[in-house]
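hey so u asked for the seq, here:
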Amino acid sequence: MWHLRGNTTLTPEPYIQSPSHPASQCLSGLGGDLKNTPQNPVTMSTNSPPVTPTPPTSPMSPSTPTPPPTPQHGTTSYAKSIVFMGKGRSPNFVTESTRLPIQLSPGQVLVRVELATICGSDLHTLNGTRTSVHPCVLGHEGSGVVVDSRREGVEAGQRVTWGVCASCDNCLSCSLALGNKCMKLHKCGHTLVTTAPLFGTYSTHTLCLAGTPIVPLPPALTPTLAAPLNCSLATMVHAMAKIPTLPRPGHPGATVALVQGAGMLGVYGCALLREAGFGRVYCSDPNRTRLAKVSDFGGIAVHPEQEDDLIAPDSVDVAFEVCGSKEVMSRGVRALRPGGTYILVGLVHPDSRMDVTAQTIILKCLTITGVHNYTGEHLHSAVNFLARHHHRYPFKSLVGPTYPLSDFRNALEVARSGKFFRVAVNPQL
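ran it, structure tokens below
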């Protein structure tokens, strides 16, 4: 694979190995031989216009060029993507052009991205506080329109969302319904371009690998509603599945929940809990701007300064940690009734040592469980939930301004400001 540097010089890209290297043979069916041909992606800097490789000549008539196969996705031949180059690199991301595959491998689906949203985890990756492989196409939240498919039941023209995890469906984890922990897992937005050239959503096109859940979208779920659902909402649907059988209504503490964090996970969680029949859903967060939205989604806003006064000890059935702060653990354990359940979702970073004793857990007979990502079943449920309840709650208001892919740097700055739950990127602008 070659990159154009400036306007004149072709230099080999160091992260692409020779055709004999194993990394060069895992392009998900796009061809293991990394030659500069139309059958394989060619990545180029957008400082120069795309260069069409010269087609090979026929051995029978050397002077007559052999035309390449005709792509099945309209006149577009290249995708533009934001590629993360690594922590400490300057710049740490670049805009690159990649030739679209002419023929997909079985199970693959090529999608034209209609809208992507910037998740906090991507900000952590770009800030260097989250480890990620590189180079990779960034972004995992999004929706789009299928332009080519080699998967049964998925057809060109369908609007879809897709899962963040592509699993093998054959390993031990997959056999235990833990496809999100597949032993051969590839994650959208966090997979090397040598393995998956377009498996990210900050791109005009996403090439979903075989094993990626694909879910059709009903017309009512506009891009603004649909783009973020394949991250926070699907994850919270998974977290909800961890709630055990609750006490009968009328018993002390029955159907009372505490959500620790009023970000995207938290407000989705409030709506899910209310629709599941919880009578009281407390949502705590030190950010008063975020707290102001909680009531719109069925929650009771609680600032940490008021938490001890508003939430009695041993009064909560289930608590969800969705804020990423280890300091909330002691308050969550205090609030839970004996036999309660604590579901940890947000503490996905090294600075997460919990200040709670085993004695406390044992004496209260607590269940503490973790949730990371989700499976295709949870994504289906998330789409169904949003289709049923998007009129009841103002989910659309969670997405702020939209920027073109060419203005991605400004989109990042606005996302970092924290003024909006999500900032959107429209790669088609």
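The domain at 2-61+68-150+160-230+397-426 is CATH 3.90.180.10 (Quinone Oxidoreductase; Chain A, domain 1). The chain has two domains: 2-61+68-150+160-230+397-426, 243-370.
lmk if thats what u needed
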